[in-house]
């Protein structure tokens, strides 16, 4: 008689930069699965008629955006050696995907999507002067509410997205536009960088975008995910 299955969970932090930013979230998942096979790690699988490797990603990154802080939890069928694992996985991945750190995850830890409370973004705003972008940012920050229409399952509703914008600041010019840093909440109501640029002004457009941090709340304090 077989004993209970024992899985060992590892959290992987990686970057997504350069041309591979145009690769979809689903395709990145496939690339990660392939890399794990290449380095000959025994990933645990789900049960049932169509077993799938136990990979659990954090919040999906929009196609075309870069990131310095992406996360993936992997369940392994046996205990693995973590030392040197970032370098081994990076060597098995295409250019632009770089594993920066790994760490064990304690049993019973909540999923990535449950614990991420906000993300920090660097957003390039195009089609406006720095003065125009600064004025738009100041106006938005000073507003008490920001109602937008959203359509879900064919029904239109009005949502106040102002509480989602935790921080918003102009950092200066880029070669093509103006760099804005935003911290956007991910719980309950959320907003994507493209939607933020749209509410700043109808004439603005989105340039290069990078997610630099994903935050969680521990004992009332904001901190990066532990990896």
Tags for this entry?
227 residues, Alpha-Beta Plaits, 2 domains, two-stranded antiparallel ribbon, 5 helices, 20% helix
What does this structure look like?
With 227 residues, this protein is α+β, with helices and mostly antiparallel strands. The chain has two domains: 8-114, Alpha-Beta Plaits (2-Layer Sandwich); 116-224, 2-Layer Sandwich (Alpha-Beta Plaits). The chain has helices at residues 25-38, 85-91, 112-115, 130-142, 193-200, and strands at residues 8-16, 55-57, 66-76, 97-104, 118-126, 147-152, 155-160, 165-173, 178-185, 205-218, 221-224. The strands form two sheets. Strands 1, 2, 3, 4, 5, 8, 9, 10 and 11 form a nine-stranded mixed sheet that branches. The protein is globular.
N-to-C terminal Cα separation, in Å? 37 Å
Just give the CATH class of the largest domain.
Alpha Beta
Q: Which fold name fills CATH's third level, the topology of the largest domain?
A: Alpha-Beta Plaits
Number of domains: 2
Determine the fraction of residues in helical runs and give it as a percent range: 10-25%
Q: What can be said about this structure in brief?
A:
The chain is an alpha+beta fold and 227 residues long.
SSE layout and pairings?
Elements: E1 8-16, H1 25-38, E2 55-57, E3 66-76, H2 85-91, E4 97-104, H3 112-115, E5 118-126, H4 130-142, E6 147-152, E7 155-160, E8 165-173, E9 178-185, H5 193-200, E10 205-218, E11 221-224
Parallel strand pairs: 3-10
Antiparallel strand pairs: 1-3, 1-4, 2-3, 5-9, 5-10, 6-7, 8-9, 10-11
């Amino acid at each position: 008689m077989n004993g209970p299955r024992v899985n060992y969970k590892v959290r992987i932090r990686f970057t997504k930069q350069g041309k591979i930013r145009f690769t979809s979230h689903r395709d990145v998942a496939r690339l990660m699965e392939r890399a794990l096979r290449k380095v000959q790690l025994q990933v645990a699988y789900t049960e049932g008629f169509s077993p799938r490797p136990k990979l659990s990603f954090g919040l999906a990154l929009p196609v075309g955006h870069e990131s310095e802080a992406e996360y993936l939890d992997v369940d392994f069928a046996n205990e693995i050696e973590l030392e040197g694992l970032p370098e081994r996985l990076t060597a098995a991945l295409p250019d632009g995907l770089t594993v920066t750190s790994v760490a064990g995850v304690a049993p019973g830890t909540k999923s990535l999507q449950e614990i991420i409370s906000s993300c920090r973004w660097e957003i390039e705003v195009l089609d406006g002067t720095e003065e125009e972008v600064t004025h738009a940012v100041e106006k938005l920050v000073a507003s008490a509410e920001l109602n937008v229409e959203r359509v879900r399952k064919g029904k239109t509703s009005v949502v106040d997205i102002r509480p989602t914008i935790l921080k918003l600041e102009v950092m200066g010019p880029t070669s093509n536009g103006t760099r804005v840093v935003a911290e956007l909440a991910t719980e309950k109501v959320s907003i994507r960088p493209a939607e933020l640029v749209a509410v700043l002004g109808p004439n603005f457009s989105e340039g290069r975008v990078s997610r630099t941090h994903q935050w969680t709340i521990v004992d009332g304090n904001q901190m990066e995910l532990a990896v």
